Amino acid sequence: MNKTIEHSARILVVDDHPIVRKGIDALLCHTTAATIAEASCAAEAIDISRKQSVDIAVIDLELPDANGLQLITRLRCTMPQTRIVVYTMHEEPWIIDELQDANVDAIVLKGDDPYELQMAVESVKIGIEYYSSRFKKCADNAPGRLTEREKEVLQMMCDGMSSKLIAEKMCVSENTVEYHRKQILRRIGAKNNVQAVSIALKEGLLPMI
Fold it and tell me: pTM surpassing 0.85?
């Protein structure tokens, strides 16, 4: 699990709508000690990241010059220590699947209560991943295929690893592992871990097994 951010968090808000950026600024300034920078596009975000350290980046997926997921990939290369919070209006099943595979620290949908974004930022500050209630609902209704993250967890379940060990290996909280485990059981129609492993082995869900 990531370490807690001890100092006043340096937050970068990336969204092409000025009203949204100002709204996020106001929301976070009232709830957390933070220094907040703004970017209206991916190029501005990259430029800011080169000039100053960023602890947390709150990123919209729809930017004028790049897909938000592309920006996340670039930031992961240049600032691997930065914690990524996705804040998006998109709830389409294929986007939900992409987000679950994106290796981000938190996901909040713009249809959520603003409190969820506050919780996401506070959670990632102490090294805990956060999925909003609306995102979880969308993920629960997503098609049955396993995401890459779920395949990774299932592989470790097949290797006999406990949730605690999986959490340590993936550098996430046990609650996050439990969320992925429940999603795996639901998607493949298993009642428990033993049945999930049996189905994975029988149906060849994991090529490496």
Answer: no
Sign of the Cα torsion 86, 92, 98, 103 reads positive
Token readout for 108 is 């909040």
pLDDT of residue 209: 40
User: Which residues touch 36 (CB under 8 Å, ≥6 apart)?
Assistant: 11, 12, 13, 25, 28, 29
Query: Residue 42: helix, strand or coil by DSSP?
Result: helix
Q: Using CA atoms, how far apart are residues 85 and 76, in angstroms rounded to an integer?
A: 12
- For residues 203 and 209, what is the distance between their CA atoms, to the nearest angstrom? 11
Domains, the chain: 9-140 (3.40.50.2300), 148-203 (1.10.10.10)
For residue 187, name the pLDDT band (cuts at 50, 70, 90): confident
- Which helix or strand (DSSP H or E) is residue 183 part of? helix 174-188
Q: CA-CA distances (angstroms) from residue 11 to 29, 62, 147, 153, 191? A: 10, 19, 29, 30, 41
